[in-house]
Inverse folding.
């Protein structure tokens, strides 16, 4: 296969891709066209799947010329599926990809820069969108991914455990020092776990880790230089290590943190708000659930970064590009975000619908738990993806090092430094 | 007294082992009967058992269709592996010929190639052959297995040569010898091999995950995956789905367990 | 089957036949065609590709990098740990896949009647449970806070065990889950082998005044040795690969990389990274490594196996 692929490579590079990239998106769809839509929301049973299927059906009803063929793949597999299909010659049209793959999607997968694809239309469409949210999908000043389903880290609180430890759940911890104090108190008084950040382990939590780093003024990389062992970034990690050494940090299976919180054994849980509806159900009849904003380092404002995904237009064919762009617009419209927010629980990229009675007003009033998350949206800081062919390995090394620094026994700063040095060798060279 | 001790020595480890084998499966069924807010309780039987998880699973994914796909895929794979293995083993044992060593080596060595290595290239090939979303695509790449050839070669080695020679004398062609003389005498290893191949095909996960892109075309292990997400697992539903995924094969086993165990004991897989 | 493995991996000891026949190839064709198309072709291409840096995309050009991919993978600091863990997985599995089943097979040989078939049917059950289901079940049972096993441990007045959380225990937990699916199957194979031992040998030894233990040591174990060696070899060659599903589903190699092994490392650094060069290299290394181990095993087996008669 690979050898055959070499042949096509040569052909494709010289003949196919170059003209396709220059071809302009069709202005209108005049005959029936079928496009594929790769989505991980479709790969798990429940509201995410039902809502997404509903949106696709709505879109097809509105655009009778376009048939959308949905492809489901779990979020950690979806990129390899898209890539495998490109290799196999089954060009995907629209894909929902996570932000860690942003640069790869832009530079290697051939995602279309939306400014070039749809210039003025993009401008009109992005009216009313949160500017911070739009920035999430940008690489080198061009928008390759249109932020789609995303959310920020919030702190879930088990109010019953707070009361059991003699603390007031109406005065939840706002800074890390307060988290430490509360965590220790709860652990000592109840024997249950104090605090846990869903930052490490097999369930992807890099956005939680990055939120912490950036809230302390750090960065995981600047340009092609890794900086996650630099003082401001490393301090965020040593803070967690201190929480752990003090007993405030829950000593639990990192792969089952959601279950530990859902079972009522954890008091404070920092993780994506996307799990909110599940936590509400689990808490029902068992304990009182509250949601607050992520804690801060002293007076520094937090810099919550996002989990979730953006939509990428990958089509090479002008007519399919038009259909793909129409689908992308539809999925990020007021109607779609009303569905996505109220049914799945992600954040709306359009804040103007929050107080609009036609859209989300009633729902937000009935579900005040989304408020802390909406409030954080104003400080949303883009998740940092890594560049170059080894970006996954680089990120993997960083995650392992951060986990080792917090949960291991070695000196945290040294652990980070060693990993950063090794990771730097896998980064693209400058220039 | 002494006899009692001996009986205890014999039974105790078997009882412990049987419990260890069965308990997790029992716990799966119990958990599947628990309503959402009771999921985390450690009661050995739910306070208010309900079938809501099953109703949810059947509603959320086309489970019957998926079970049928899985059955067709597993049965076809098992049959293919038995047939290809039978032919290859017959060739390797019936004739001494130039290149037989190489053929044997190729077959055995294929066992050591990690599936992770072949997955993506095979996906590309399967796509080009139009086998995406098809049961053929799930079966064909697994139509031959080193294990099947090895087991059957061994079984045929100990097969009385005289019988074959006698049949050949009577003018029977090789295919007829294989069908009418060899197969009837190898029922036990063929049956246990078929069962093993069926089970492992039923439990296949990584290849169908890649190859099927519509929920209607997928198999149970992937159906199960639908209840595990980055946003947390739906435990009750997943246990119900896992029970449904294991049920057909458990039932099959319940009905045929004596024959299956028997054929294992006589199969010569040893 | 040992003989089969022996003959196939080590090539026939007898002089190769010079007869050129076409008939056997007709019968071999379906098997060989399947293996060549779906296993060897990708393997050959992987070997070629392991010298390139390429993400397989038609828009990118493969870049020849020589042995750089090999150097990168082999010098990963995580590699040492992964290799060590692979050995631990194998060593940990051996008691569950070989020692315990052998003991049980011999211990229960006199068992007869309904109990025997009941036990045999029950211990076979884990074998038919899908690995992914087994992973999910055991995570559920072993959780420190709401798992049934720890609830039991606490009832006994002991401190709960972090089966999947504690870096010094997690690997053994995964070994147990892998072994759980194997015990029953291995026991059946050994019971079958034990059942075919000619009672005459045992009777003769008894007449000579051999004790129960002596009979086991001098007659049963040597006669069971082909099966024991086969199971040992299977565990060595495939044990770490069998654990892969559980690492992937349960720990992702953690906590603190304590449960990673070569298969998982290669999955993580090679196959998950969309770089065909890395993944091809990773696959080639695994294939070559276990190929060498297979040869060594067979050589050892040839030397130590005792055949009946």
């Amino acid at each position: 296969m690979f050898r055959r692929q070499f042949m096509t490579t040569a052909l494709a590079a010289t003949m196919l891709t170059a003209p396709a990239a220059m071809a302009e998106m069709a202005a209108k769809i005049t005959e029936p066209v079928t496009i594929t839509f790769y989505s991980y929301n479709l790969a798990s049973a429940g509201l995410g799947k039902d809502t997404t299927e509903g949106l696709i059906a709505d879109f097809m009803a509105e655009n009778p010329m376009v048939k959308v063929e949905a492809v489901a793949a779990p979020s950690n597999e979806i990129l390899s599926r898209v890539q495998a299909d490109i290799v196999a010659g089954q060009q995907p049209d629209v894909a929902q990809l996570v932000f860690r793959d942003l640069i790869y999607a832009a530079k290697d997968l051939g995602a279309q820069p939306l400014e070039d694809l749809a210039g003025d239309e993009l401008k009109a469409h992005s009216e009313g969108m949160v500017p911070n949210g739009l920035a999430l999908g940008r690489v080198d000043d061009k928008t390759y991914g249109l932020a789609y389903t995303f959310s920020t880290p919030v702190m879930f609180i088990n109010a019953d455990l707070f009361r059991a430890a003699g603390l007031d759940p109406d005065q939840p911890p706002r800074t890390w020092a307060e988290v430490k104090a509360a965590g220790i108190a709860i652990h000592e008084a109840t024997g249950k776990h104090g605090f846990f950040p869903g930052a490490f382990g097999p369930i992807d939590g890099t956005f939680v880790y990055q939120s912490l780093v950036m809230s302390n003024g750090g960065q995981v990389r600047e340009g092609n230089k890794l900086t996650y062992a630099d003082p401001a970034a490393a301090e965020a990690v040593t803070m967690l290590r201190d929480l752990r050494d003090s007993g405030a940090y829950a000593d639990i299976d990192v792969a089952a943190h959601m279950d530990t919180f859902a079972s009522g054994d954890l008091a404070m849980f920092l993780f994506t708000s996307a799990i909110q509806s599940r936590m509400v159900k689990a808490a029902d009849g068992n304990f009182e659930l509250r949601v607050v904003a992520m804690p801060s380092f002293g007076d520094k404002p937090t810099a919550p970064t996002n989990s979730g995904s953006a939509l990428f237009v990958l089509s090479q064919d002008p007519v399919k590009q038009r259909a793909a762009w129409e689908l992308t617009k539809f999925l990020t419209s007021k109607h779609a975000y009303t569905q996505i927010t109220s049914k799945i629980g992600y954040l709306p990229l359009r804040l103007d619908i929050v107080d609009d009675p036609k859209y989300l007003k009633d729902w937000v009033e009935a579900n005040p738990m989304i408020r802390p998350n909406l409030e954080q949206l104003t400080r949303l800081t883009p998740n940092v993806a890594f560049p170059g062919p080894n970006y996954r390995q680089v990120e993997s090394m960083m995650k392992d090092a951060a986990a080792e620094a917090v949960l291991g026994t070695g000196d945290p700063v040294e652990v980070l430094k060693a990993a950063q040095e090794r990771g730097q060798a896998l980064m693209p060279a400058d220039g | 007294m002494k006899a009692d001790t001996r009986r205890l020595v014999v039974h105790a480890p078997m009882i412990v082992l049987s419990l260890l084998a069965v308990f997790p499966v029992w716990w799966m069924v119990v958990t599947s009967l628990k309503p959402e807010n009771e999921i985390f309780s450690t009661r050995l039987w739910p306070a208010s058992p309900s079938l809501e998880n099953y109703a949810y699973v059947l509603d959320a994914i086309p489970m019957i269709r998926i079970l049928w796909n899985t059955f067709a895929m597993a049965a076809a794979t098992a049959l293919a592996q038995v047939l290809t293995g039978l032919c290859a083993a017959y060739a390797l044992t019936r004739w001494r010929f130039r290149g037989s060593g190489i053929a044997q080596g190729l077959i055995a060595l294929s066992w050591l190639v990690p599936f992770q290595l072949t997955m993506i290239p095979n996906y590309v090939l399967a796509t080009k052959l139009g086998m995406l979303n098809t049961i053929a695509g799930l079966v064909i790449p697994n139509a031959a297995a080193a294990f099947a050839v090895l087991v059957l070669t061994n079984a045929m080695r100990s097969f009385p040569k005289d019988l074959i020679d006698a049949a050949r004398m009577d003018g029977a062609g090789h295919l007829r010898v294989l069908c009418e003389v060899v197969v009837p005498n190898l029922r036990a290893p063929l049956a246990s091999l078929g069962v093993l191949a069926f089970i492992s095909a039923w439990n296949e996960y990584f290849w169908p995950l890649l190859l099927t892109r519509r929920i209607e075309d997928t198999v149970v292990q992937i159906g199960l995956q639908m209840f595990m997400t980055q946003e947390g697992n739906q435990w009750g539903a997943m246990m119900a789905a896992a029970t449904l995924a294991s049920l057909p094969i458990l039932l099959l086993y319940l009905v045929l367990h004596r024959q299956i165990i028997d054929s294992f004991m006589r199969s010569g897989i040893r | 089957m040992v003989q089969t493995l022996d003959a196939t991996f080590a090539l026939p000891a007898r002089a190769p036949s010079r007869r050129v026949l076409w008939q056997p190839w007709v019968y071999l064709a379906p098997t060989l065609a399947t293996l060549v198309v779906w296993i060897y072709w990708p393997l050959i291409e992987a070997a070629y590709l392991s010298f390139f840096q390429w993400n397989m995309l038609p828009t990118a050009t493969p870049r020849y990098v020589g042995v750089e991919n090999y150097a990168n993978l082999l010098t990963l600091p995580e590699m040492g740990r992964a290799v060590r863990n692979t050995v631990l997985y194998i060593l940990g599995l051996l008691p569950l896949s070989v020692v315990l089943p052998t003991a049980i097979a011999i211990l229960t040989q006199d068992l007869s009647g309904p109990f025997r078939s009941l036990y045999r049917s029950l211990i076979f059950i884990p074998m038919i449970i899908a690995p992914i289901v087994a992973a999910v079940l055991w995570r559920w049972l072993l959780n420190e806070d709401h798992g049934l096993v720890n609830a039991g441990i606490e009832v006994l007045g002991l401190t709960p065990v972090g089966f999947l959380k504690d870096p010094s225990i997690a690997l053994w937990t995964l070994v147990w889950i892998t072994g759980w699916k194997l015990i029953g199957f291995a026991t059946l194979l050994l019971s079958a082998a034990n059942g075919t031992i000619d009672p005459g040998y045992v009777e003769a030894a008894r007449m000579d005044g051999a004790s129960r233990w002596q009979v086991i040591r001098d007659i049963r174990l040597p006669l069971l040795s082909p099966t024991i060696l086969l199971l040992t070899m299977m565990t060595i060659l495939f044990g770490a690969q069998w654990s892969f599903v559980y690492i992937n589903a349960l720990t992702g190699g953690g906590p603190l990389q304590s449960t990673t092994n070569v298969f998982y490392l290669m999955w993580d650094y090679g196959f998950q990274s969309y770089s065909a060069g890395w993944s091809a290299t990773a696959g080639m290394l695994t294939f070559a490594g276990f190929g060498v181990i297979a040869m060594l095993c067979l050589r050892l087996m040839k030397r130590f196996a005792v055949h009946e008669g």
Residues 99 and 228 of chain C are 9 Å apart (CA to CA).
